[in-house]
Structures are given as C-alpha cells and as structure tokens.
Amino acid sequence: MSKISDNFLDIGYMDDLAGKDSWLHRLDPRAKLITVIIFIVAVVSFDKYTLSGLIPFFIFPVALVALSGLPAGYLFKKVLLVLPFAVLVAIFNPLMDQKVIFHIGSLGISGGWVSFLSIILRFILTVSVALILICLTGFNAVCLALSKLGLPKPFVVQLLFFFRYLFVLTDEAARMSRAWALRALGAKAIDFKTFVSLIGHLLLRAIDRAERIYLAMRSRGFDGRIRMIRAMKINSREFIFGIGWSVFFVLLRFFNIPVKLGALVTGRFS
Amino acid sequence: MHMADALISPAVGATMWAATAGLIAYSAKKVKEETDDRKVPLMGVLGAFIFASQMLNFSIPATGSSGHLGGGMILAILLGPYAAFLVMASVLIVQALFFADGGLLALGCNIFNLGFFPCFAAFPFIYKKIAGVDPAPKKIMAGAIIGGIVALQLGAFSVVLQTVFSGISELPFRTFVLLMQPIHLAIGIVEGLVTAAVVIFVWKARPEILEASRQSEPIGPININKVLLGLLAAAVIAGGALSWFASANPDGLEWSMFKTSGKEELEGGGGVHASAAVIQEKTAFLPDYGFKKSQSAIEPEESVSQSWPAIDPGTSVSGLVGGSLTLAIVFLIGLALKRRKIAVP
Predict the structure, then answer these.
(1) Which of B115, B117, B123 is nearest to B95 (CA)?
(2) CB-CB under 8 Å, B51 with A170
(3) What is the mean pLDDT of residues B101-105?
(4) Which chain B residues touch A169 with a CB distance below 8 Å?
C-alpha cells in the first residue's frame, strides 16, 4: 500500500515538474506528443535482434533532460522501478532461443540473449520518453493536445475531471485505510466483508460528490465544455522541433551509425 | 496483464490503436446522445474512485495473497457500457503516462484488452442477461462472477495473441496460453466476487443508483454488430496500410506468426503448419549465414544495406564497439548541453 501512495505522491511531483519553465516546457504540447509518438514507433519498428541500432536513440531522452533541467536521477529511478516487468517477460527469450549467433572471443552469445537485451533497451527508451513527455507537459496540456488532435469532447472533459478528483478520492481512500489499520490490531490485509463495506462507502461518497460537483458547476454556468486560458499555437519553433527530430529518427532508423563508427575504428586499428 | 511497448510491433500497436480510437469515438458519440451532461462529472469521479479503491487490498483466505477491485465490470454496471469504456480508457491513460504501466504504443492494446471485453462482451451478453431486468443478490453474484471470468479469459487470450503476432517475445503460443489462462481464471473469479459484493452493497443501500443507471442505457439489445463491423474495418485498414511495412521487413506480422508456429512443432501440424515450416525455412536467416559474413566485417556498408532487418553477425563486432562509442558520445552531448544550460541562465 505504501508503494501505491508513493506512486500518488509521484503524480503530484510530476505535475509540479511540468509547471516549471523552459523553452521545452513552453513548446506546443501537440508538437511534443507527435514527436514522442514518432520516436516510439521508430524504436519499436526495429528487428528483434537489433542492439546497436537502438543506442543512438538515447540522444533524444538525454537531450530533453539536459535541456529542460528535469531531474535525471529521479526519472532514472522511475524507469528502474518498472523495469522488472520487462525482465519478467523478456527472460523467456534466452530460454527459448538458444542458437548461438555470434562469438566474443570464445564466448558464444545466443540469439535469445540478444533479443532479451534488445527488449530491455526498447523498454528503457520508450518508458523514459513517455515519462519525460508528461514531466515536460503536464496532464492537462496533454489532454488539451489530444482534444485538438480530434479526441471526442466528452471523453476529454471526463478525463480532466478524472485527473482532478484522483487526488481527492485517493486521500479519502488513504484515510479509510489508515482508520482501518488503527483498529485492526496489526492485521496485514482487510478481510473481505470489511473490504466490501469500505469500498461500498467510498463508492457512495464518490457518487454523491459527483452530484454535488455537477450542481455546483451547473449553477456557475457549466455547459459541458472546459475552456483553457493558454492558447496553443504551432510556430516555427514547433516545426523545427518536430520535423527536425522526426527526420533524425528516420535517419537513425535506416542508417546504423554505431556499426559504421565501429567499422571505422576497428578498421583503423586492425 | 498490461502490454508494454517493448513487446509489440508497430503493426500490432497501430491496429489496436485504430480499433480503440474507433471504439472511443463511437462510445463518446453514444454517451453524448443518450445522457445529459450530468453523467460526465460522474464518469470522471468514478474513474478516480476505481483508481483510489485500488489502494485498499483485501486478503484472499487461505492463499496469503491479496486482491483489489479491477474496474471494468463495476463501471459497466454503474454507468452502462459506453461510458464505462471511456472511463476505463482514461484510467489506463493515466496509468500509462504516470506509472509507465504499459506504454503509449501499447495503450491501444491495453484499453482494448481491459476495456472492450468487460464493457462490450461480458456486460451486455452475460451480466445483463442474468441480472439485468430485476436484480437480486443471487443474480448479481452469478452474473458478475461469470462475467468477470469471461472478460478476463478473453482479455488474457488477447494479450497472448498480440504478443505472438508481434514476435518480439520468444514465448511460444501454447506455453503462453497455458500460462495465462489459468492465472486469469483465478483473477476473474476474485474480480467477479468483489464486483458482485460491492454492487450488492450499493443495491441494498441505495437501490435507486442501479435503477437510474439501468434506465439511462439504450433500450433493447446493444448494437454490438455495428461496433464489431467498425472495428473490423478499422483493423483491416490499419493492417493494410501497415502491410507494406510488414513485407518490407521480415519482422512483420506474418513472419513472426510463421516463426512461432514453425518452431513450436505442434503435433497436429496440418497443411498450414507444414507450409509455414517451409516458409520459415526459406526466410530463416540464421543458419551458417553469419559466420561467412563475419569475415567481411570490414565492409559493413554493403552488408548493412542488404540485410539490414536481419541480425547480421558480420557487423556485430563493429556493432559492439560502435555501440559503446555511440553511447559514450550520447552522454557526452548530454553533459555538454547540461553545462551550456547552466552557463546560460
């Protein structure tokens, strides 16, 4: 449970990071969103045995972090936290695919280990870029970008409501959990009957709260739309950012720079 | 049961994105048509409720493990399938963005697996048929448990299919199915039980909530055929648009399918598997191809451009050396940018 509440603290912290100011923060969220998606597609479209081709892609997250002043250590830790999941699924590859595909000295490396490492690299790349996107942009701006890109209005509005009340209801659930723990004499998890009653009451309160919110907003003129102050504009800056990176990703996708670089170096030294 | 970006191919990711986007658009249209805007705040708050409720865990007797409320079914019961699907989608979006649960490309898969099956399969065809018209505790219990099992079995199977079609994980289809289905049978039963218990609680305390949500649904059977047809169209279009990709690179959909079925050697391997094995042999690039190449590692230009999608052991030495160099360069650039950043303000 403590892990989950830590996660919620994280949401607040990440939203705080998004409130900072740098030219990357100020960039139109649509440009960032689309660039990130192109990056992810480029990364995952590699063949499953690709290792060296993936490495140059690290320049994107590294540059974003360096230029925006986001805390690199924090992001790194967050990626590490979810890494076990990828390891769990990828670990079957070395077991299933034992064909040796190349040698380093006398050590034979099987295809399974190569694809295992490839999955880990992909995972680190895609996860870190998605986290950086939200830390640079903030949830509300991402929602706004999605709505400008054609996501249906009712969906966006309820998404914004959802994010806003996430914190309120989480507090309420945490209070309930604490109240239970104080009365439970060291029991580890809630028994089923109590659990149902707790959740049921949480649900009833949530429904009542929704009703109150609706009435309060209605009396202030809510018409089913949410308006935002910050106007979004695609300028030359957004163009350069989006097109520049995208072209770069496509180049990296089709030209394996590390292999060429390695050939250059080994060719010179051998 | 979340899919991750690292495990899916772009073709699978895009197909599921197209399917999910279609479903979201359709559901949003339906929600707009069938309800007043009162429901929109309710949807958002209930999404937050699902999230918050997952902070509370209950102990499962005699197992030592604990469980929590999953979401899809109870949302469908309280809100109706369309609104529930939208709420489920937003819960998964937040999980993907903040907790890196799954990923952006896999988001389509995840919304489909965890949203579509409970909202558009288990709820209308099982729960509503059993407990819909005149709810009573026993009917709610039966409907929710069977519905939970069906939704999670379908969802788990869908995860297996997406993984196998992507061909990134080496896990053979049969092993994966045997691993996933029993686990999700247990999860489905627990999920159904919790859902039923909470719905019964609400039904006893405030029956009008269930009453109201039932009435706000469209009358008569849900037109699932239309949804499925649209879905199919979206999948075909996306699949077709991306097939150039799959055929240009042998890491596409078909290839991975052939590869797993060829490797697996199912006993009853009939015509399809036999021919698949033939194709697999033809497309196999591993057998003693690499070691010839490794001698010509000095001319990587040619080998890179020719056999680029395949693993090319010939270039792997240069790849190793160059890869470490590139990594070093990347971080040097990062450091330089950072230093410049500090110097400027």
Answers:
(1) B115
(2) yes
(3) 76
(4) 45, 48-49, 51-52
**Location of structure tokens 């607040």:** A12
SS3 content of chain B, % helix, strand, coil (to 5): 75, 0, 25
Instruction: Give the list of residues 6+ apart from residue A262 with CB closer than 8 angstroms, or none.
Output: A52, B300, B317, B318, B319, B320, B321, B322, B323, B325
Inter-chain residue contact A214 with B42, CB threshold 8 Å: yes
Give start and end residues of each alpha helix (H) in chain A. Answer: 2-18, 23-26, 29-44, 59-68, 72-90, 92-96, 111-137, 139-148, 153-183, 192-219, 236-254, 257-269
pLDDT in tens, A48-76: 788 888 888 999 999 999 888 888 888 88
Within a 10 A sphere around the Cβ of B128, how many other Cβ atoms?
21
Contact A168 B48 (CB under 8 A): yes
Q: What is the rounded CA–CA span in Å between residue A36 and residue A14?
A: 18
Contacts of B61 in chain A (CB under 8 A): 192
Task: Report the distance separating Cα B92 and Cα A33, nearest Å.
Answer: 17
Chain A residues near residue B32 by CB distance under 8 angstroms:
152-154
Q: Is B327 on the interface with A (CB under 8 A)?
A: yes
Q: Say what the ipTM of the complex is.
A: 0.77
Chain B, nearest residue to A125 by Cα? B6
B232-262 CB burial, b ≥16 within 10 A, e <16? eebbeebbeebeebbeebbbbbbbbbbbbbb
- Cα separation, B285 vs A10, whole angstroms: 46
Secondary element (H or E) of residue A101: strand A100-104
Q: What angle do CA A237, A239, A241 make, to 5 degrees?
A: 70
Q: For residues A165 and A167, what is the distance between their CA atoms, to the nearest angstrom?
A: 5
Query: Which is higher by pLDDT, B154 or B321?
Result: B154
Cβ-defined contact of B311 to A47 (cutoff 8 Å): yes
Nearest by CB: B172 against A96, A166, A168: A96
Please report the sign of the dihedral spanned by the C-alpha atoms of residue B85, residue B87, residue B91, residue B97: positive
Q: Is B156 on the interface with A (CB under 8 A)?
A: no
Q: Is B265 helix (H, G, I), strand (E, B) or coil?
A: coil
Tens-digit pLDDT profile for residues B223-257: 555 555 655 665 555 555 444 443 334 333 333 33
